[in-house]
Write a structure and sequence with these properties.
The chain is of the alpha/beta class and 251 residues long. Helices cover 39% and strands 25% of the residues. The protein has helices at 40-47, 72-78, 95-109, 117-130, 148-162, 178-191, 206-210, 230-249, and strands at 2-11, 14-24, 29-33, 53-62, 65-66, 80-83, 166-170, 197-201, 215-220, 223-228. A 6-stranded mixed sheet has the order 6-7-8-3-9-10, with helices on both faces. Strand 9 (215-220) and strand 10 (223-228) form a beta hairpin. Helix 2 crosses helix 3 (95-109) and helix 5 runs parallel beside helix 6. It is globular and about 55 Å long. Pfam families: ABC_tran. One of its GO terms (molecular function) is ATP binding. Keywords: ATP-binding, Nucleotide-binding. Residues 2-246 form the ABC transporter domain.
C-alpha cells in the first residue's frame, strides 16, 4: 500500500527525516515510537502534505501512485487519513456540514454521485449512538470550544465517516482517559478489515494493548534504528528508549 524510500524531510531548513525507509502492506498495523523530536510527527505530516514539511529527497508511493505529486486534498481523496496531535478549531464551519462536504469531495474525486442527505444523517447518528458520543457534536462547529478529549473523539467520528484506506494517528491517545482510549481502539479496530492499514505514533503501551500492532519501529535521529513486533513495545516499557537503542546499535 505505502512504500517510502530514502525520504528526507526538512522543517524550517532543519533536516528532520534522514534517508527514512518503510513499507506498509494492506491490512498491517505499524507503530512508530521514539523520544520527542526524532521525527515521528514529521513523518505523518510529510505523508499528508503538511505545509511545514519540505521533502528534499526520496520516493513515496501509495497504491502505486507517486504520492509526492499529489497535494493534500488529493492524498485525502486517495484514502489517506491524518488524525492530528492537536486538532485545530475551524470557526464558523458546522461539524455535520464539514463531514458531508468531505464525503462528497471524496465521492466527486471518484466520479460518484453525492451522498443522499437523509441517508448520510442516519449513518452519522448511528455511529454517534454506537460509540456513545454526545449527539450535540454534529450541531457544533468543528472542534470549536471542544476539550482535548472531545477533539480526539471528533477525529474518530471523521475516521468512521470517511472510511480511509491508510489511517495515520499522531498520538491520538495523548491526554485521554481510559474510557476515551477504549473508544479510539474500538473505532480503529472496527476499520481493520484486512485491507485498511494503520500507521500510529504513540509513547504509551495503553493503546497498543487494545490495537495490537504487527510491527513496532523505534525512530532515532530521523531514521528507524530497530523494528520488531508487539514485544518490542513491551521491551521499551521495561528498558526505555536508551536501553533498547543502545542494545541495537551495539549489535
Amino acid at each position: 500500500m505505502l512504500s517510502i524510500k530514502n525520504l528526507n524531510v526538512n522543517i524550517a531548513n532543519k533536516e528532520i527525516l534522514k534517508d527514512f525507509n518503510l513499507d506498509i502492506k494492506e491490512g498491517e498495523v505499524h507503530v512508530i515510537m521514539g523520544t520527542n523530536g526524532v521525527g515521528k510527527s514529521t513523518l505523518v505530516k510529510a505523508l499528508s502534505d503538511h505545509y511545514d514539511c519540505e521533502v528534499t529527497k526520496g520516493e513515496v508511493t501509495f497504491k502505486g501512485k507517486n504520492l509526492l505529486e499529489l497535494d493534500a486534498s488529493e492524498r485525502a481523496n486517495e484514502g489517506i487519513f491524518m488524525s492530528f496531535q492537536n486538532p485545530v478549531e475551524v470557526h464558523g464551519v458546522n461539524n455535520m456540514y464539514f463531514l458531508k462536504s468531505a464525503v462528497n469531495e471524496k465521492r466527486a474525486y471518484k466520479k460518484q454521485e453525492e451522498v443522499n442527505s437523509a441517508q448520510f444523517l442516519k449513518e452519522v447518528k448511528s455511529i454517534i449512538k454506537e460509540y456513545n458520543l454526545n449527539d450535540e457534536i454534529i450541531k457544533r462547529n468543528v472542534n470549536e470550544g471542544f476539550s482535548g478529549g472531545e477533539k480526539k473523539k471528533n477525529e474518530m467520528l471523521q475516521l468512521l465517516v470517511l472510511k480511509p484506506e491508510l489511517i495515520m494517528l499522531d498520538e491520538i491517545d495523548s491526554g485521554l482517559d481510559i474510557d476515551a482510549i477504549k473508544l479510539v481502539a474500538k473505532a480503529v479496530n472496527s476499520m481493520l478489515d484486512g485491507k485498511r492499514s494503520v500507521l500510529m505514533i504513540t509513547h504509551y503501551d495503553r493503546l497498543l494493548e487494545l490495537i495490537k500492532p504487527d510491527y513496532v519501529h523505534i525512530l532515532k535521529d530521523g531514521k528507524i534504528i530497530k523494528s520488531g513486533d508487539y514485544n518490542l513495545a513491551l521491551e521499551l516499557q521495561k528498558r526505555g528508549f536508551e536501553g533498547v537503542g543502545e542494545d541495537n546499535e551495539s549489535s
